[in-house]
Amino acid sequence: MKILPYLWLLPVLALTPLSLPAQDKKTDAPAAKRDLDTVLVDSRLRRMVNELSITDEQKEKMRPIITDEVRQFRAFRENEALTEAERIKKADEVRAAAKPKVQAILSADQFSKYELMLKGKVKPKGK
């Protein structure tokens, strides 16, 4: 009688549609990009909270800077006309433009950790 605990699944499966309506990828693409941008921004902010111990006030000041960086990175990554070297150069330019803005928000200690974090040399707290 091992089947009895799973009998409740029958009505659920019977009511589940076998096929979902197709979604128009063209109309969903911008929303998906915005969602991905938001996920990336939130992820970077969480990392900064964990590794740099930024305050809520600093976090809110950093959000538009990071959002702008993410949008710029996506724009030149999607530009198929750019070579890999041009993409790397543009990424460096975006980071260089954001650097003074970030430096104005973070303390000196946080900023030095931030630079190490960008180079991948800082490990999250507790690891």
Q: What is the helix/strand order?
A: HHHHH
Number of strands: 0
Calculate the mean pLDDT score and round it.
Answer: 80
Helix content range of the residues, please?
over 70%
Distance between the termini: 47 Å
Provide a count of the helices. 5
Protein structure class: mainly alpha
* Principal-axes shape call: globular
Biggest beta-sheet profile: none
* Proportion of beta-strand residues: under 5%
> Uncertain spans, ≥5 residues at pLDDT below 50?
none
Computed over alpha carbons, the radius of gyration is: 22 Å
Q: How would you portray this structure in words?
A:
- This protein is mainly α and 127 residues long.
- Helix content is 72%, strand content 0%.
- It has a domain at 49-121.
- It has helices at 9-15, 25-52, 56-78, 84-105, 108-119.
- Helix 3 packs antiparallel against helix 4.
Can you describe this structure in just a few lines?
This protein has helices at 9-15, 25-52, 56-78, 84-105, 108-119. With 127 residues, the protein is mainly α.
Topology:
Elements: H1 9-15, H2 25-52, H3 56-78, H4 84-105, H5 108-119
Features:
mainly alpha
